[in-house]
Design brief:
The structure is a homodimer of 241-residue chains. The first copy, chain A, is an alpha/beta fold and 241 residues long. Helix content of chain A is 37%, strand content 20%. In chain A, the strands form 2 sheets. A 5-stranded parallel sheet of chain A has the order 3-2-4-1-5, with helices on both faces. Chains A and B meet through helix 1, helix 5, helix 6, helix 7 and helix 11 of A and helix 1, helix 5, helix 6, helix 7 and helix 11 of B.
Chain lengths: 241, 241
């Protein structure tokens, strides 16, 4: 059996069910590249009382090591947040099914719903987009297209920040594209930065882009561009100014 | 201190952090009306080793009992899924802040991300809508408007089913509105029903509306109307036919 287990947003966010399952496993892998952990691998090893094997991109996407391991014994793949949020893990699930390996998904908290702490109503969020680090010759703006689509239907946009990118770089990309597209509505809009949501250091900041660009933010963080605000949303956001 | 603690989707979905917190609490309330639990209150009491007070709508929305309790001692409000997904709990959070009661949110798994088990990519979901039971003189179609908005930007739609409504009734509302609006695309589209996702009885069914209307479904369930499918999404969904 292969257990795909969510770790949630903080060290002790794994569920009781998840901990029960991991205790049964002979091999425990940790997805070490699709998102950043707000705790160390050693802390996690002490918590679950198991030695952890760090699974790099290649091990999850190309090699069959995890699936082969789960054929011989109970194995776990631990994933920050709720599993299957990343396409990579859905692909792994599909490959496991093809190889007739039973898979059990154990859910946990996710940034996609933890953002409700901002006061924004979850059902008003539209599509989610990721901001990737720009290369010299590849400066993807697709996240901005998603943002504009969402605003068209009055939906909030959650922007995830890829590993290797700082919040300030991500904010500067938004500004650069908004200026290029002459999109004043974004330049004048108050937007949100959520740092380490779900941990004791969780912090929400609500301000205009130019003001946010002068601040320093820690990781993991995400950015939210709100659509029109309901008065209750506005009232709560005010407290984060 | 008031702890607002998510219970996730199944009996043992509460996080280790959530269990630690509830153990410290002198008063433990359970939100008993915003969503359906796939386990009994007695099972939950045995798990957390605390007597539970069921909080009905009035206690959460109108009375100050929970906030007053948290002024005197550590108190917990347990909420199925991830807390703050319902506006009611956001309002409670705001009232607590006004009364200077410290609040700590402890997250858990949510149907909003557990639907990734369908193979649909989470970042392609648009706004979420709820289907409420129709009354003789009030037959709200707003969920269908959300669905049409989402399809305009090629986003999947998660339709939650309010308490008191069966899956078949919800499906029949979709059919009735689609026929009234002459919306053939929905009548011919394959859609998804997710039953008890996140539990051992979790089941996903993928079929046309008319076929689904002939089946029986258990609760809690939700319905998903997918937008255009990526080939990987289509491949996984095929396995649920």
């Amino acid at each position: 059996m292969l257990y795909i287990i969510g770790l949630g947003l903080d060290l002790k966010d794994i569920s009781l069910k998840g901990l029960d399952a991991v205790k049964k496993c002979k091999a425990v892998y940790l997805d070490g590249y699709t998102s950043q952990l707000p705790f160390s691998v050693e802390e996690l090893e002490r918590l679950i009382r198991k030695k952890i094997i760090i699974a790099e991109r290649k091990m999850i996407e190309e090699s069959n090591e995890i699936i082969e391991s789960a054929k011989k014994q109970d194995a776990a793949l631990l994933i920050p947040g709720d599993p299957l949020a990343a396409t990579t893990h859905v692909e792994l699930l599909l490959r496991a099914k093809k190889e007739k390996v039973s898979v059990k998904i154990i859910h946990a908290s996710s940034i996609l719903t933890a953002v409700a702490e901002t006061g924004l109503q979850l059902y008003k969020f539209g599509k989610t987009a990721s901001i990737a680090k720009w290369q010299k010759s590849f400066r993807p703006e697709s996240f901005y297209d998603v943002l504009q689509e969402n605003l068209k239907i009055n939906a909030h946009t959650l922007l995830l920040i890829d590993i290797g990118l700082s919040v300030n770089e991500a904010l500067s990309y938004i500004k650069e594209i908004a200026e290029k597209r002459k999109d004043k509505s974004i330049l004048n809009k108050e937007i949100i930065v959520c740092e380490k949501l779900g941990t004791n250091d969780g912090k929400i900041t609500f301000d205009k882009l130019d003001k946010l660009l002068k601040k320093k933010f820690s990781l993991p963080s995400c950015i939210i561009v709100p659509a029109e605000l309901h008065f209750l949303e506005a009232e709560i956001l005010k407290s984060f100014k």
